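$ run holo --ligand "nicotinamide-adenine-dinucleotide" --emit tokens
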Amino acid sequence: MKYNIAVIRGDGIGPEVIAETIKVLNVIAERFGHTFNYEYLLAGGCAIDEEGTPLPNKTLEVCKKSDAVLLGAVGGPKWDNTNAKIRPEQALLGLRGALNLYCNLRPAVLYKPLKNESPLKDEIVKDGIDICIVRELTGGIYFGDRGVDIIDGVKSAYDTERYNVNEITRIVRIAFETSMKRNKKLTSVDKANILESSRLWRSIVNEMANEYKEVEVNHLYIDNAAMQIVKDPNQFDVIVTSNIFGDILSDEASMVTGSIGMLPSASLGEGTLGMYEPIHGSAPDIAGKRIANPLATILSSAMMLRYSFSLEKEAKAIENAVFSILEEGYRTGDIMTDGKELIGTVEAGNLICEKLKKGE
Ligand code: NAD
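-- output --
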């Protein structure tokens, strides 16, 4: 099969981690008989420099027509002035909005060979962690009414959490479907003891549970969920939650896995078009040093194969290759420990390619 992939290298370590990912995808194409066409596009800081805007029209148009978007990272100190009207992150928000990507899938996986990377104790981590957070991405308080006004002579500011039934239904549906492909256990996180929008959220989860009788459903308040992730992360399989709660919980979950350089993400919408990117930023402190960990981006490409192209075998092959180089003791600097073999960005990519070529 033939697939068109819009590739945004971005800034900082973005181009370095993307280069390794493309090498890996090329090996997959050859081994499994697919054709991947890549179109390289500008977005983020480099686009501001070259085109005066973080998201040039051409980038947006090509992304819309592609089968998937693969992104490195955007941003850096050069463009980090908080007062600036034009900022690199606007490219991400612009792409999510224009492509109607309302669902963010963030697996927080701690592979067994990396268990010492977790800040949690051994007896809590046990054989590793594997949580998938499904976060609503285009609604709620980040997009609701907001403003600043004066009430009784005192300045005040407000933001509004608003969700409609359709917005909740479509994200909860993805969460149930994701649960069916995993361990059939779904935790919905809300603040239904206080928030009206959470009560609506909860009622929709309960209603849909009737359609997915095999899935074990439970509800947690956000404050309790935040505690439970550090107390006993293995009680979770899939977590579904709103935009703001998901923002916070997914960062917390990634911290308990210990390495930001290992975690992929997918942003999905109605059809099969999705945007795939590592959760880390452009890491300007290590850009150009050839030491960045490319595994989060390589694992993001595995998510792309699974969710946009339905290529499960191919996705698994990449994930297995990543697991095996970790098990053999290879580590980039960010996950290096005593007795392991230190490798750079390019070596990490090469090792994965070798595994895949051998059909391991
Ligand atoms: P960051 O994720 O770039 O870096 C945080 C720390 O983790 C740094 O010490 C970095 O060296 C390290 N790190 C990150 N990825 C790594 C990797 N693959 N391998 C090894 N080490 C890695 O976060 P930050 O420093 O807060 O942000 C830097 C820039 O990235 C900012 O301009 C920010 O706006 C931007 N950013 C972009 C995205 C995105 O493109 N999706 C996300 C977050 C931050």
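-- notes --
The chain has two domains: 1-101+280-360, 119-256.
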